[in-house]
Design brief:
Elements (H helix, E strand, L loop, with lengths): L13 E2 L6 E2 L8 E9 L2 E7 L5 E5 L6 H11 L29 E8 L5 E8 L5 E5 L2 E3 L1 H10 L10 E2 L3 H6 L3 H12 L5 H197 L8 H17 L1 H100 L8 H16 L3 E4 H4 L1 E2 L5 H8 L6 E3 L2 H14 L6 E3 L8 H11 L5 E3 L4 E2 L5 H8 L3 E3 L2 H9 L11 E3 L4 E2 L5 E2 L4 H7 L4 H30 L4 H90 L4 H37 L5 H103 L18 H7 L11 H4 L3 H4 L6 H8 L5 H11 L16 H23 L7 H14 L1 H59 L9 E6 L10 E6 L13 H16 L6 E5 L7 H17 L2 E5 L3 H4 L4 E8 L4 E8 L22 E3 L12 H7 L1
Parallel strand pairs: 5-24, 5-25, 10-23, 13-14, 17-18, 23-24
Antiparallel strand pairs: 1-2, 3-4, 3-6, 6-7, 7-8, 8-9, 11-13, 12-16, 15-17, 18-19, 19-20, 21-22, 25-26, 26-27
């Protein structure tokens, strides 16, 4: 295993192979050393797990008890049982298979080692009745004391800053902004001040309300006078702003027109100069054109002459090139002939030398033949002596007798052929029968042994079949129960999911509906106060019915704006039953100082007569474009009079043309003029004035009838979102408890599939066992049938062996008799008594003699044949052939040399011609170059003239385009000034303005129509004025490019009549582009400020008269006001002091709560940026990603939300919901580590946080955890991925003991196998042996078949 980090991720001093030593990392203490469990969940008996190192991995197969180990750590650290997948404490006690757990007790404890070496034992126990207690070093303590001791070592039980359960990472990534704030409050402990904060806030608000009441009571009498004074001053400011705007607009347009006029004159002068220069350049260009053409013609003629000379040179060079291959060919022929003659001369010399040596060779062969024959005679003598020496006591056979002996022996062998064949046949049959008997005996023994084995296997298979059948029945029953529970849990989960989808669909529909509705009708604070006052009026005065806008409603939505404009301010009036009720309400509002309101008493309102209304209704009812405003408003009959008072006999028309036709087309009849309102909000009054346009206030007022419907939609949406949030909360809570849907379903599914697989395997095993049993019984029957047959065949084979042995003896006797018939007479003739003994004694000598004799005879024959060949050879004929060939080659060589001489002479003549042709080409090229240079110089000069002419032409075009744009800009500016009715001073005019602006007329008119009226001139503008520069841009550019165009001439004349003498000197100065943009921006900013100020004002033009009247009234009652102010002063001072103290207390608690929250937030935010960057760094992305936290409210962050954003490397900013699962997990882990760094716990326990990570992100997280565990905290990780536990310092393997249904643990300390720094790299790790093993009061050896052991070994 290699414990190395990716390049650029962590700045380590150096990293070596995990043999495993890390250089440059400091080590930390291991706070949690052991975990001791007794009958806790799946851990039966007393088990001690550990020791834990700074980085420990807990591994094991699914269902072995890894998560129960996590639950045990959480339980002992104060986490409640409902968060540990159990509903009550009893569920945490181990349940032995088939036994009751009523008498068992459970406990979990950790051993915490402090920096000074001392160890503290934190323990929680569960009695058999489900009650529990807390212990520290064996002493029982309260939960508060237990929590305080954990807090001293950095473990915050409520914040759970030391645990990461399954699903916590995904849950963190999906938290809402409000949930993030709650999490930070828990971490920072600012939540402890929440109750004090709310109490202090309530006290502060009550004190401020009391102070405000006293203050309002004190200032009430002067409030109305001050209000009127402010309104008077506002009206004066309104007049000043209008005058400032008019002056500013005049200066702005005059500044633009002045500089346009100056620039126009300059550009026209410049254009005239450029046209003159362009004419001169064209004349120069024409004069140079003829000279350039003549020079190019001469250069072309020289170029053709050069090409002709070069063509002649190429032809001569081609002839030379044609002769070169012939010369090379002749030279090669001469070389070949010379080489061939040299070879023939050498062969001739060799042949002549062979003729001289031939006689000596024949003589040498004769001598070798004689010598070989002498050697053969000597060999015969040596053989005779050897025979005598080998058999001194017997007669020695002569050479003739030996030859006779060979003939007799061959005859005896021929006579004994038949008996020998009979003997061989008998022996072969004997061997075959013996082999068959041995085979039968072996088969018989094997059959007996097999019978015994089959009987034993049948017994074993019968017993196994019975056990499997019983287990299969139990498994199927348990599987059916789990299947039933799984089906029920799945149906419940599907029902909830379907409900959630339905909620999502309905919420989306509501959002779409709300987005279509204009939801911008926000109630101002004054309006909310007015509504509260109206509600209060209803409670105090029964005759108050409410605002008219709340009591009526247009019959169709399209009439909203028309009805709002027709009713005007009366739509906000309050309807009361009598005039006296209205007066009482006015007194109440004045006493409470909550604002002003208009009241409509039903008993004293004057409405149009019924006859006039009916006449108008009869006239307009015939045309569907008109209807009475009162007819399109739905209301109760009780308030019908108020509606008629508000709208009168106003007629609602479809558009402005219809309204004109109605008002000016003679439809008024006897009733005279009619007031008309269009659906778009335009008004034609009875006096004939026309008002158009819609303000934001009118739009908001028109949309108030939709508020109720919109509010209903909002309420419905809030209910649906609350229900969805409840479902999400249940789902989130389900992940933390055993009763959670997802966890429960997953556990049931795993158990069901496990039992199903177990049942399938058992059924398959049962079927296999039955087949084996049938096969074994059939085999036993076959063996029983085979045994008697084998015994019978063995007996027959033994009888055949005895018969064949007798026949073999008889065949041997017959062979001997046949041989004695021929060899007997030879023994008698030679006197040899024993031929076999004689043959054995002389066999070696005879064989050696025969072999040597044969070799010498063959040598003599070879020499004689060689002599005959040499004597018959003809050595003179090859010499004659070589001499003739040499003469023919010499003749060919002479011919080739003569041809070579002729070719070289011809090439020399052609080279002379080629040299002359080269000189001719060179002279022609020089002349061509001179003419080309002359033509190029003229061409260059001509191009310069063309370039200069093009430059001047472009300048003319640019000036014309600039002048064209300037004319268009002048026209646009003058037109805009006319549209905006800006006063422009003209030459020869008096000081009075030639036109009045819209603002000026508005000041003199009705104040209620400020900002909303449009004059009839806007309706009668020409189409060219109404269409902007974008719609007629091409037409205008065509007009402005023509200097004599009537529009251009008219604009020029109008600009020349402007009086620029009254402009400020600073506006006449020439400016560069940057300065011009700055001046223009200053004008526009000033204009926007003035317009904003004007639009934000609603001056009361009658405030001056009202202010004078109230001042006189206060002077008359001055003494009573002074006394009232003195009476209320003491109460106000007292309430103000109480408010100051309450505010100070609230501010202190608020500052403390904000400080705690912001300290935690700032620390976590800074840590998050560093940690996420480190976790996402790589060789490809050395800068890493970016993550940060942002607050919606930095003043009081706990009242709003907090957003968590992450940007992986090389990706743009996106919301967390748009990141992939792995990216969310990495970001959430970075946030978890950052949270842990604030008041960090000394250890960190994580349960399968790597589920959604791919290999790349998993490696980054592993590297980060490994580095942090070496320096900052102890890390205990539960994981199924080898990339985690291969980097740890120790492993805790967990497996399931099937016999006791209990979890067992195996601990492996990997630091014992780390290589020392000086040890060689090639040394391998010694045999792995577990350090300790968890079990009920004992330790076992590590079995290879154990899953945990396999994982630990890997």
């Amino acid at each position: 295993r290699i414990a190395s980090f990716s390049s650029g991720v962590f700045p380590l001093a150096s990293v070596s192979l995990r043999g495993y030593q890390l250089v440059g990392l400091s080590t930390i203490n291991m706070p949690v050393t052991y975990l001791e469990l007794e009958n806790f969940k799946s851990y039966g008996g007393l088990q001690k797990i550990g020791p834990f190192r700074s980085f420990t991995s807990i591994i094991g197969p699914n269902g072995s008890g890894k998560s129960n180990c996590m639950d045990a750590l959480s339980f002992v650290l104060g986490v409640q049982s409902r968060a540990l997948r159990s509903s009550q404490m009893k569920d945490l006690i181990f349940r032995p298979p088939g036994k009751s757990r009523t008498k068992l007790r459970a406990s979990a404890a950790i051993y915490f080692e402090h920096d000074n070496g001392e160890t503290t034992k934190f323990q929680r126990t569960i009695g058999s009745n489900g009650s529990g207690d807390y212990r520290i070093d064996g002493n029982v303590v309260t939960y508060k004391q237990y929590e305080e001791r954990l807090g001293e070592i950095g473990v915050l039980v409520k914040a759970r800053n030391f645990l990461v359960f399954q699903g916590d990472v995904e849950s963190l990534a999906r938290k809402t902004p409000a949930e993030f704030v709650d999490l930070i409050e828990q971490i920072s402990q600012s939540v402890e001040l929440k109750k004090d904060y709310e109490t202090a806030l309530k006290a502060k608000e009550e004190a401020e309300s009391s102070t405000l009441f006293c203050f309002n009571k004190q200032k009430g009498m002067k409030g109305e006078r001050r209000l009127l004074k402010e309104q008077k001053e506002e009206a004066e400011r309104f007049h000043d702003l209008l005058e400032q705007k008019q002056t500013m607009q005049t200066d702005y347009y005059m500044w633009q027109l002045y500089h346009m006029e100056v620039e126009r004159k300059e550009r026209e002068t410049q254009l005239e100069e450029l046209n003159t220069e362009l004419k001169d350049k064209l004349e120069m260009e024409q004069s140079h054109t003829g000279v350039l053409k003549e020079a190019k013609k001469k250069a072309s003629a020289a170029r053709r002459a050069t090409q002709t000379a070069d063509k002649h040179r190429i032809e001569i060079a081609g002839e030379v090139d044609k002769l070169e291959p012939s010369i090379i060919q002749v030279e090669e022929e001469i070389k070949n002939f010379e080489k061939k003659m040299e070879q023939d001369r050498k062969q001739l010399e060799n042949k002549k030398e062979q003729v001289g040596k031939h006689a000596d060779k024949l003589k040498d062969l004769d001598e070798k033949i004689v010598e070989a024959k002498d050697t053969l005679t000597d060999l015969q003598q040596e053989y005779e002596e050897a025979k005598r020496d080998a058999a001194p006591d017997q007669v020695t056979l002569t050479h003739e007798q030996e030859e006779e002996y060979e003939r007799v022996k061959e005859a005896a062998a021929a006579a004994s052929v038949q008996p020998r064949q009979t003997l061989a046949k008998v022996n072969k049959q004997l061997e075959s029968v013996r082999a068959r008997a041995a085979t039968i005996a072996t088969e018989l023994q094997a059959a007996k042994t097999r019978k015994a084995e089959v009987n034993k296997e049948i017994g074993d298979l019968t017993e196994r079949s019975n056990k499997i059948s019983k287990n299969l029945q139990d498994t199927e029953a348990e599987s059916k129960e789990y299947e039933r529970q799984l089906r029920a849990a799945t149906e419940e989960s599907q029902r909830i999911e379907r409900r959630r989808e339905e909620l999502e669909t309905e919420i989306e529909k509501l959002n779409a509906t709300l987005s279509e509705v204009r939801d911008d009708h926000r109630k101002s604070r004054d309006e909310e106060r007015l509504l509260q006052a109206i509600e209060s009026l209803r409670n105090h005065f029964p005759g108050v019915m409410g605002r008219l806008v709340d009591l009526c409603r247009p019959t169709q939505r399209r009439f909203n704006l028309a009805v709002t404009v027709a009713a005007g301010k009366d739509m906000d009036a309050i309807v009361v039953d009598t005039k006296s009720t209205g007066i009482e309400c006015i007194k109440y509002l004045r006493e409470q100082r909550v604002g002003t309101a208009t009241f409509l008493p039903l008993d004293s309102l004057h409405v149009p007569s019924l006859e006039s209304s009916e006449r108008i209704r009869a006239k307009v009812s015939q045309d569907g474009r008109f209807r009475l405003a009162a007819d399109v408003i739905g209301c109760d009959e009780a308030i019908k009079k108020a509606v008629l008072y508000a709208v009168g006999n106003t007629v609602v028309c479809d558009d402005l043309n219809c309204a004109r036709e109605l008002c000016f087309g003679g439809r008024g009849g006897q009733d005279g003029a009619i007031k008309a309102v269009t659906l778009g909000g335009a008004v034609i009054s009875k006096a004939g004035t026309m008002t158009g346009g819609v303000t934001n206030e009118d739009s908001n007022r028109a949309g108030r009838w939709d508020d109720k419907k919109v509010q209903e939609l909002r309420d419905k949406k809030e209910k649906l979102e609350a229900e969805r949030m409840e479902l999400d909360r249940d789902q989130t809570a389900g992940r933390q408890s055993m009763g959670g849907r997802n966890t429960r379903i997953e556990e049931l599914r795993n158990n069901y599939h496990s039992l199903k697989s177990k049942a399938d395997y058992a059924a398959s095993d049962m079927e296999f066992t039955r087949k084996q049993l049938v096969e074994k019984k059939i085999l036993l029957k076959s063996v029983d049938r085979k045994l008697p047959d084998l015994e019978r065949r063995l007996q027959e084979a033994e009888q055949s062996i005895e018969q064949l042995q007798t026949e073999s003896q008889r065949a041997i006797a017959a062979v001997r008799a046949s041989e004695n018939e021929h060899l007997g007479p030879f023994r008698d003739a030679t006197g040899l008594k024993d031929l076999q003994a004689y043959e054995q004694a002389t066999r070696q000598s005879r064989d050696e003699f025969n072999s040597k004799k044969r070799t010498i005879s063959e040598h003599i024959s070879h020499l004689e044949q060689q002599k005959e060949y040499e004597a018959n050879r003809d050595l003179h004929q090859p010499i004659e052939r070589l001499e003739k060939r040499l003469k023919a080659t010499e003749d060919k060589l002479k011919v080739s040399r003569k041809r070579e001489k002729e070719l070289r002479k011809e090439v020399k003549a052609l080279n002379v011609q080629l040299e002359k042709a080269d000189q001719t080409v060179q002279k022609a090229s020089e002349k061509e170059g001179e003419l080309e240079e002359e033509a190029k110089a003229l061409q260059k000069e001509f191009k310069e003239i063309q370039s200069e002419r093009g430059r001047v032409s472009k300048a003319v075009t640019a000036e014309e385009a600039a002048l064209e744009r300037l004319r268009g800009k002048l026209h646009e500016t003058l037109q805009k000034a006319r549209v905006e009715e800006v006063e422009l001073p003209m030459l020869g005019s008096d000081d009075s303005p030639t036109s009045r602006t819209r603002s000026g007329r508005a000041v003199a008119g009705d104040a209620d129509e400020i900002g909303g009226d449009l004059e009839m001139e806007s309706e009668s503008q020409s189409p060219s004025q109404q269409s902007g520069p974008h719609t007629q841009n091409s037409l205008q550019m065509t007009q402005f490019s023509q200097e004599n165009n009537p529009k251009v001439v008219a604009d020029k004349n109008e600009a020349s009549k402007l009086d620029f003498s009254k402009m400020r000197a600073d506006l006449k100065q020439r400016l560069n582009d940057r300065e011009e943009r700055k001046v223009r921006k200053d004008f526009e900013d000033h204009k926007e400020k003035l317009e904003a100020s004007i639009e934000g004002m609603a001056p009361n033009m009658k405030a001056q008269e009202a202010f004078t009247a109230i001042t006189e009234k206060l002077k008359d009652t001055g003494a009573s006001i002074t006394e009232k102010l003195k009476d209320t002063g003491a109460d106000f001072d007292k309430s103000k002091e109480m408010a100051r103290k309450a505010t100070a207390d609230f501010q202190r608690i608020k500052n403390e709560r904000s400080k705690r929250f912001m300290d935690a937030f700032n620390h976590i935010d800074e840590s998050l940026k560093t940690i996420y960057t480190d976790m996402t760094k790589s060789s490809k992305h050395p800068l890493g990603g970016n993550a940060y936290l942002s607050l919606d409210d930095t003043e009081e962050p706990y009242k709003a939300g907090m957003k968590f954003n992450a940007m992986p490397p090389m990706k743009r900013f996106r919301d967390m919901e748009q990141l992939s699962g792995g990216e969310k997990t990495v970001a959430a882990l970075a946030l978890l580590f950052a949270i842990h760094s604030f008041h960090p716990a000394p250890f960190f326990v994580m349960d399968e946080v790597d589920a959604a990570l791919d290999n790349i992100n998993l490696r980054k997280v592993c590297n980060y955890i490994q580095q942090r565990s070496q320096t900052d905290f102890q890390c205990i990780v539960i994981s199924l991925k080898d990339m985690f536990y291969e980097r740890s310092q120790s492993l805790v393997g967990i497996c399931k003991d099937v016999g006791t249904n209990s979890s067992r643990t195996l601990t492996l300390d990997l630091t014992k196998y780390d290589k020392p720094e000086g040890e060689k790299k090639g040394r391998k790790r010694s045999k792995v042996r577990p350090v300790s093993e968890g079990g009920p009061q004992k330790r076992r050896a590590l079995e290879p078949a154990s899953p945990a052991a396999s994982a630990a070994t890997q």
